[in-house]
Every structure is written in structure tokens, then in C-alpha cells.
Amino acid sequence: ADGYIAPASTNIIEYLTIATTSNGTDYGDLTVARRRALGMSNTTRGVWVGGSDTSPTPYLNTQDYNTIATLSNATDFGDASAEASTGNGVSSSTRGVYSIAYEAPAYVNTLEYITFATTGSTTNFGDLNNAKGYHMCGCSSSDSTRGLFAGGYSPAHNIIDYITMASTGNATDFGDLTVARRSGMATGNSIDAIFVGGYIPGVNGTVDKVIIQTTGDAVNWGDLSGTAFHEGACSSD
Q1: Which of 28, 120, 136 is CA-nearest to residue 79?
Q2: Which end of the chain lies in a sparser environment, N or C, as judged by fewer CB atoms within 10 Å?
Q3: CA-to-CA distance for 112 and 123, rounded, in angstroms?
Q4: pLDDT 10s digits, 179-233
């Protein structure tokens, strides 16, 4: 959903049926046109958090949701705690947890969460280990137990943190990426988390892997055929 089609941000939501191959199909619209929003979901709802635009403020605290099985425009969910740039989010079957990464003029380490089945403003979850969550990547285990946050800015770093999704509290150090970077992508299943690409500076194609239910440094899994950053990643289990 959303994005940037020069010269303006958009409110477009499209969908794909994963079992088939085809172009994207119009799903509906966000309540506010914006870019760089983050998405979280369970099997019932998708929630879009934050984003940026040029007016009236550069960052938004807007939260929208859709009922995934129904084509429609998004509905207001509530608000994030601040008009800030969000870092990334992870999801369980009941919760979405995301980082508030940059609240001008400072980088921050705040984690907040929403409960998918309800609507309302966010609740504080805890903190990351440091205030470098800007342009990080995140993924969660498909069994809904852990969420991992990796990389970030400024400057680019290699830290991986993890949280236990069902509880609240500060993140715990998991280990390190093989390469410090920001703006990478992450995906995973119930066993592994994969961290892909990023910006060092210089666009990077490194692919790292960790075993989600352990802790330890990432190992190199290979490389992309090219390089990429500011993209998306997804996986099946």
C-alpha cells in the first residue's frame, strides 16, 4: 500500500492473490496519501502505521486498517504516540509491534504496539537497545513468539535485537549482522530469519541468516544477484 508516484505521495492499496500470477488489482485507498508507511498484519486485519508527506507535517501519526478478506478503503485505527518516522514492525497473531525511530530533532529507541482485534491509539512496549532504529528492518517468527529488529541508522550499524511478542519490555541483544547497514529487508518463517541487502553507504547485496529461537551473530547465507535497499521481502512457511 501507498508510496510515491512523482510528484506526489499516493493513497493506493493493491492486492495480489498469491496462488496465482497476475498484475496487482485495486483494493481501495488509505485514509491519507503518504509514503514510507509500515505494514503489519495477522490473518484478519492489516494495519498501516505512520508515513511521511510534505503537509501539514513531514511525518504522520496516522494508523489505518483493512479487513484483509474485504475489498474496501482503509478505516482509521487510532494514532501513534508521535508524528515521527517509524523504523519497522513485526507481527504476531494478536499484536503488531513497531519502532518509533526519528522524532525530530532526535533519533529515539521507542517500541509501541497495537492489538489487531481492537482499534485505538498505541501502547508503549519498551525500548530498543539503542536509538538507531531509523531505516532498520524487522521480521517475526511465523509461530508468533519472537520479533527481530536489525540494522539501522545513524550511522549504519549491525545490531540485532529481539522481543518476545506476547510480553512487553525492552528488547534484548540477539547478536550482530555480518555487515553494518540500514534500509535492508527482512523475512522469515518459524525457524530462520533472513536479512537482505541494505545501504552501507553504497547499495549492498549481502544475505544473512539467524535461527530465530536462538541468539548469536548472523551468518552469511549468500548474496543477491544484484544489490538492493528500500525494498520489501516476504516468505511462505
Answers
A1: 120
A2: C
A3: 5
A4: 999 888 899 888 999 999 888 888 888 999 999 999 999 999 998 887 776 767 7
Find where cell 487510532 sits: 78
Q: State the pTM of this model.
A: 0.90
Amino acid at 47: V
Which amino acid is residue 149, in one-letter code? F
Phi and psi torsions of 174, nearest 5°: -100, -40
Strand order across the 203-211 sheet: 185-188, 192-199, 203-211, 219-223
Facing residues of 78 across strands?
63
**Contact at 8 Å (CB) between 178 and 219?**
yes
The amino acid that residue 225 corresponds to is S
Asked whether the CA dihedral 74, 234, 173, 153 is positive or negative, the reply is negative
Return the bridge partners of 34, or none: 10
CA dist., res. 151 & res. 181, Å (int): 5
**pLDDT value at position 106?**
85
pLDDT tens-place string over residues 135-186: 888 998 888 899 999 998 878 889 999 999 999 999 999 999 999 998 888 9
Q: Are 184 and 152 in contact (CB under 8 A)?
A: no
| Beta carbons of 109 and 128 less than 8 angstroms apart | yes
